Known about the structure:
By secondary structure, this protein is an alpha/beta fold. The protein has helices spanning 20-24, 31-38, 52-67, 91-98, 115-128, 152-155, 204-208, 218-239, 257-267, 278-281, 288-298, and strands spanning 3-12, 16-19, 42-45, 76-80, 106-109, 134-142, 160-170, 175-183, 191-192, 215-216, 249-252, 307-314, 318-325.
Amino acid sequence: MIRTKILGTGSYLPEKVMTNDDWAKLVDTTDEWITSRTGIKERHFAAPGQATSDLVVEAAQKAFVDAGVDKDEIDIIIVGTVGADNAYPSTGNWVQKKLGMKTIPSFDISAACSSFLYGLILGDSLIKSGVAKTILVSSAEIMSRIINREDRNTCVLFGDGAGAAVLRASGGEEGILSTYWGADGNLGDLLIQPAGGSAMPASRETVDNKMHTVHMKGNEVFKHAVLRMQEAAVNAVKRANLTSKDIDLFIPHQANFRIIEATIKRAKIPLEKTYISIDKTANMSGATIPVALDWARREGRIKPGDNVLTSAFGAGFTWAGLVIKF
Length: 326
Ligand SMILES: CC(C)(COP(=O)(O)OP(=O)(O)OC[C@H]1O[C@@H](n2cnc3c(N)ncnc32)[C@H](O)[C@@H]1OP(=O)(O)O)[C@@H](O)C(=O)NCCC(=O)NCCS
């Protein structure tokens, strides 16, 4: 039986750190409010001139070294992002160019905060169906370019970064054991960047009205996030024929520490087995989970044979969960 193994991971955060106190100098907020309501202490912001593909390139190079693969062994590039370099070509195409890779298929997927897990599920099926042997799956976001810096309800919640994983077909026990995903377009308006696409093309008015930034009904999103993150986690565990007791580490999407707390309570996973990185990164949308996964591996939180559960929720709404044996 073919399994999809995670051969290596890499991550990258831009150098500039933006603390809660830095935000408090710009909008009516405090470190105390942000920390107690979200768990966030700081986030990283990309430098002017850095594009999303530049972040992917950094993360991918580290993933290649970690996996022990040459870039020419990669068969497909998948990048999950809501902030592509351009409307087109895809960020994946720019990554291929910047890394000097072969003319392999390279493309983006759009599933917001769930995009890395959507990418893993897609990569898993491409490997299992024999289309590819080795795949680069990455997610990167420069949220600092699409936040409304005058809206304290949203601007403090996000950060920039990139994570990547090299997937490879394997005959062993390790690899992706189960997947679960879903979406509900009926709730798309609750978390949306309204302008810049065909529904609302860019105009002087859309720019003046800050329609190219994150618009979110935070309370509503919170409730759905808890329900769907839990649903994805519980069903991924069930589909792997495991119970929550068999999970060695849970890597949830990090949008709000209170969402994580409510999710693990419902999914019956202790906090000690839950990886927390939101304090250092804030919500980097799809990049959050691959960065946390890379850090957890490098910190020795994931040992050979461990069952790692991950689940995400994001705009769309989208959600996904996987169990991966390392
Ligand atoms: C955004 C979020 C942190 C707000 O937390 P909350 O406890 O629900 O807070 P509320 O929205 O009820 O707002 C409470 C008050 O704090 C205020 N507030 C909002 N942001 C603030 C900030 N940065 N600093 C200080 N006060 C703030 C609000 O204006 C409101 O004031 P009011 O009562 O005078 O109107 C929370 O709803 C959340 O995390 N939602 C989900 C976000 C998310 O996960 N998005 C991505 C999905 S992947």
